[in-house]
Amino acid sequence: MIVELGHFALTLAFAVALFQAVVPLVGAGRGWADWMRAAAPAAVMQFLLIGFAFAALVHAFVTLDFSVRIVAEHSNSQIPVLYRVSGTWGNHEGSMLLLVLILALFGATVAAFGRDLPLGLKARALSVQSMIAAAFTAFILFTSNPFDRLSPAPLDGNDLNPLLQDIGLAIHPPFLYLGYVGLSMVFSFAVAALIEGKVDAAWARWVRPWTLMAWVMLTIGIALGSYWAYYELGWGGWWFWDPVENASFMPWLVAGALLHSAIVVEKRNALKAWTILLAILAFSLSLVGIFIVRSGVLTSVHAFANDPARGVFILAILGVTIIGSLTLFAWRAPAMRSEGLFQPVSREGGLILNNLLLAVAAAVVFTGTLAPLVREFIDGAKISVGAPFFELAFTPFMVLVIVAMPLGSLLPWKRGDLGRVMARLWWAAAAALALGGVVWGLQSGEALLAPVGLALAAWLILGVFVEIGARIGLPRASPGTALGRLVRLPRADWGKFLAHGGFGLSVMGIAAVTAWEVEDIRLASPGESYMLGGYEIHFDSVSDGQGPNYLYQRGHFTVFRDGEVVAVMEPEKRLYPVQGQPTTEAAIDMGLTRDLYLVLGDKQTTGDAWVVRAYLKPLANWIWLGALVMAIGGLVSLTDRRYRVGAAARRARPAPVAAE
Fold this sequence. Notes:
The protein is of the alpha+beta class. Among the domains are: about 1-165, no CATH class; about 390-515 and about 620-645, no CATH class; about 520-620, Tick-borne Encephalitis virus Glycoprotein, domain 1. The protein has 19 helices and 10 strands. Strands 2, 3, 4, 5, 6 and 7 form a 6-stranded antiparallel beta sheet that branches. Strands 1-10-9-8 form a 4-stranded antiparallel beta sheet, with helices on one face. A hairpin with a 2-residue loop joins strand 4 and strand 5 (about 565-570). Helix 18 (about 490-515) packs antiparallel against helix 19 (about 620-640). Mean pLDDT is about 90; it is low at about 645-660.
């Protein structure tokens, strides 16, 4: 009965979404205040109805109601409760319901906390947001109903995909959806502004928190997915340029550009049309990601569905959204004139350069991801675009971004002097070059990746410290004065410092692990020992056992360094009998400076030898540490009252001195 009520609630939510999509928009066009005010209660009602539908589906998974088709297909009586819950969105239908729930949640948030929004802008934004929600709710109801029943119901389920039975994958999709849907809210505000024909600093102040929140959630979601692939798939890598990885990476890049572009709109009343275009592109790329994952046109270990009929439906949503919004943009954009004038060498110029580089980098990823699909459509040929293309075509643009970031951060608004900025940064540049030279010398002239990567990371991190010093008046200010200014720095500035510094930490980890990783693949038998980069690995034994819903073979290894035990490691091979699917559980001894990574492979048909893969990964954890610091930086910025949704500005107080 609860399942039927959930289905009914979802159907009612679709009707409410249609009402919310039409009535407030008509009211805004006609100037009818009562019709515009209807948007807020409709948004709240839509969220409550979809929330009930989602709760009904969660209940079906937790109580193991195998009469519901997706519960029977994606759950089992033996799996832990955590994975019963995450099984709700560990499938195509449930994950789409989660996406629609978050769409409705954000609409309800604007309805509840957007009291300071102009009534017309609020009504139009909620109407556009509801159009998106109505489209995806229709997609669920007509092609992907999560409440379908089975008759007769099976005695037990088919189990959740073993690769998804992991805490990382349990929370990874919700974070990605929070990012995708956060960009839908930005898109809704952009389209509402186009319809209204007005983009100003107040609009930018409303868009920035949503953009920042979406960027933070995407950062966390991408990092979780990368870390899951690192420890769960057993291949030893952290990024594969997989189409679904790229699907979340592209909107992350454009959201970063949008975040910086919105600053120019807010501070200088410039780049209005460009910022609107970035908002459209960011959400459009999110829709492209949904299409890649759901349509089956590109295969991936992360893909949920392989149904062309669903792909056509999503392609229709994608086409209407992109063509409609870009047509509206082409009509309205010429009237959006920038008022702020500035020189190329200025803070504005630096932010424009940042925007262009990030946008081109996203275009490179987009091209490489969809090239196989386009080629197959044209002549039926199947091609593969892999890591070599992306690394060669993408990396130069990110290098330029890193080089420009400290310079752009120190340039003043309107007009700057690059020579004066470099005078502040000379010691950071010298230290970064010295680090690169030392690394080059210590590695005996091997590949340039490590010295160049570490030098760039140092330049970025040291540039943050130079900017902090400039903001508090060092070296001219007295220590007491500088400390007071440091304490009074806005939280948005601290968030920027953390985000830029975290990016530097990730770059440092990427450079080190890519250049200096040591790999060893061999046949080994219990009782044997071998060396790996200064560590002695002793293969002790292999034992068999049984988990909640799987069987395992567990290797036991002891790792020594200079005769001292540094780790006891136990990699596993698991077999999930219900699905007959094996998985690999790597054993990782994590450290601040390196990871030791062991994988137990297959046993040979004769003898007692096993395939054992071992890796020594310098600074591997810095990749995810940097992502965490970036996300924390974004969250710190969101706590700044100036960027909170609906918060009025405080009375100005004396600000720290600006960088010269």
